[in-house]
Specification:
By secondary structure, the protein is of the alpha/beta class. It folds into two domains: 129 residues, Aspartate Aminotransferase, domain 1, CATH 3.90.1150; 236 residues, Aspartate Aminotransferase, domain 2 (3-Layer(aba) Sandwich). The chain is 40% helix and 14% strand. The chain contains twelve helices and twelve strands. A seven-stranded mixed beta sheet has the order 2-8-7-6-5-3-4, sandwiched between helices. Helix 2 packs parallel to helix 8. It is globular and about 65 Å long. It starts with a strand and ends in a 5-residue tail after the last helix.
Amino acid sequence: MIYLDNSATTRVLPEAADAAYRAMTEQFYNPASAYKPAVAAEKAVEAARARLAAALFCVTGELLYTSGGTESNNIAITGLLKPLRVKRRIVTTAGEHPSVYEVFRALEDAPDTEVVFIGLNADGTINLSALEAALTAETALVSVMHVNNEVGAVNDLDAILALLKQHAPAALLHSDGVQAFCKLPFVPIAADLYSISAHKFHAPKGVGALYVKSGVRFAGGQAGGGQERNLRSGTTNVPGILGLDAALMQYRAHQAQWIANMRSCKLRLWQNLSTIPDVLLNGPASEAGAPHILNVSFPGVHGEVLVNALSELEIYVSTGSACSTHKKGQNRMLGAMGITGARAEGALRVSLCPFNTLEEMDAAAATLAEQVTFLRRFQRR
């Protein structure tokens, strides 16, 4: 089996699974309770929060634990807009993950709200000229993903912040960092809000975090018992948080080596695939962009057909975001890059993890070449 769909989810590290298991079976107490074992659980959660804060170059009071990237993205947007009682302009790209894009679509019907979608460059990065033209004094929020989850393009958050300071100084920047966190070097966050999801870096599903910069007016998310400083209520997910913490510690110990391995595998895979006739690379050059995502098109073969054919041979890839897999029609993110027609229909996303090998890249590429050659015999003429 060769698993190459790590942008959809990752295999949980043994250290993370063990930490979550022990939290479920030994440290299972509710941290909101007052007795000694529960207090110990709360201390473990806060110690984990401190280590996450260190990785994000922030302070613990700026971090909320959530159920994952979708919740983090949702409450980042709605929690910022809730306190605003004036006309506001909000800006995002046409290539965002559904957990951002669909929230902006829903806000198109909100009173006193102007929603602007801007396009992407051919390599999948945000069109900074279009962003600059969209910024006005009424702009309250800009949301741009850090790493494009379809093609691996890396957006320059520092450049985006500079444009905001120049043209919309009251605007705040939110970034979906789900495909960036741990996959890019740990550096201070160039955003006012930043979303992460644990199951993208070998921790359990169902847990994530949201960074909210100190001083930002933020109304939070779901109401209830007042957990997470009364900004995100709900019983604390101790197993998920401690699993996240264990995976993060492994990434912090091995990140340079792991990133280098993913980059080497990505380059090897493209080197092999580039020999297939008519193959096209979507997004940034293979040596650029995030180290773990490669998007390629095989015109003449439908991506879904190729995914199914490879699946029968226990090679697992995707046609794009797992959150969009069951939606019919054109790939919205590729369309925002100007990729349509047979090229979009024949697109595959390959996403790597630190534990993939060069041998797997050779085997996967050889099988892909065989399947593409075979399936192209049946293309419409």
